[in-house]
Amino acid sequence: MTTQETAEKIQRLKQERNAVILAHNYQIPEVQDIADHTGDSLELARIASKTDYDVIVFCGVMFMAETANILCPQKTTLIPDPKAGCPLADMIDLKKLQKLQAQHPDAVTVCYVNSSAEVKAHSDVVCTSANAVKIVASIDKPIIFVPDRHLGDYAAKKTGREIILGPGWCPTHYNIDPDDIRDLKNKYPDAEVVVHPECTREILALADHICSTSQMIRAVAASSAPRFIIGTEQGLLHRLKKDNPDKEFLTPGPCLCPNMKKITLDKVLRSLETMEHKVVVPEPVRTQALTALERMLEYV
Ligand code: CIZ
């Protein structure tokens, strides 16, 4: 079957199943192109929470599909490849979180959306890269921030809050070499540097814009710069190039999340054909995690 034929079959089946396809900005171009909505975790969580469709096909990694199921358990949430995990999310588990909470009993726990449902269930509030600074700024107490220590460190710096950092980092963003950004900037001084807050401090210090992927899309659209150095997963380039054909995008080496790339068009089709793989967060974890997610959704 050609890509076009697969895409057409997906569209037909999607209607039969009354399904909506949500795709993260890091998905491969073919998957982004057949999606009803693309976005960052915050946008996709908001869309999932309000959807009228019976089925959500979540093209992203497992914690994102779990978030959709936590927000709307009455719908069927499918992930085309259940092995699409997140190493950052795996860097904190309940035991490690409870140890931190026992060491800092007066602290409020803010958990990045890149975490398991169980960790969310034992946190006070969830955040994404789009709203971490806002949420941290609103808390006037010590904060345990898990799992991403780079995002937590960035939020601490922006807000002056006391933050106990969790143990995690994103291998994809961690591997970006600051020298590659410096080299590109020397070669193209008119380029703006746009990076994700999961990057290291050294990289953040080189940036003109530090933001989530959807905020990057808006920042690039609003800028008159002719070119941009993009410090995040390369899936975002598809949308950036599509929206800005007259602008140039440069990357500091390959920045690739192998888990995001596990979702293919064939797997999306199979998912709709077989109604697999269902993502169901068990109770009472779901309800507890919902409280922390709903607190986040109240913020924006
Ligand atoms: O918040 C998200 O969706 C992540 C993990 C990255 C981004 O900024 O889109």
Structure description:
The chain has 15 helices and twelve strands. The strands form three sheets. The chain has a four-stranded parallel sheet, with helices on both faces. Helix content is 45%, strand content 16%. The chain is α/β, with parallel strands linked by helices. It folds into three domains: 3-85 and 260-274, Rossmann fold; 89-169 and 286-297, 3-Layer(aba) Sandwich (Rossmann fold); 176-250, 3-Layer(aba) Sandwich (Rossmann fold), CATH 3.40.50. Helix 12 (213-222) runs parallel beside helix 13. The N and C termini lie far apart (43 Å). Strand 1 (19-24), helix 2 (29-34) and strand 2 form a beta-alpha-beta unit. (~{Z})-2-methylbut-2-enedioic acid binds at residues 24-25, 40-41, 113-114, 128-129, 196, 212-213.
Features:
about 300 residues; alpha/beta; Rossmann fold; 3 domains; four-stranded parallel beta sheet; 15 helices; 12 strands; about 45% helix; binds (~{Z})-2-methylbut-2-enedioic acid
What is the structure about, briefly put?
The protein has 3 domains: 3-85 and 260-274, Rossmann fold; 89-169 and 286-297, 3-Layer(aba) Sandwich (Rossmann fold), CATH 3.40.50.10800; 176-250, Rossmann fold (3-Layer(aba) Sandwich), CATH 3.40.50.
Mean pLDDT: 97
**What does the main sheet amount to?**
4 strands, parallel
What order do the SSEs take from the amino end to the carboxyl end, as H and E?
Answer: HEHEHEHEHEHEHEHEHHEHEHEHEHH
Give the number of domains. 3
Kindly state the percentage of residues in helix: 40-55%
Total count of helical runs of at least 4 residues: 15
The span between the termini is: 43 Å
The tally of beta strands, per DSSP, is 12
CATH level 1 name of the largest domain = Alpha Beta
Which fold name fills CATH's third level, the topology of the largest domain? Rossmann fold
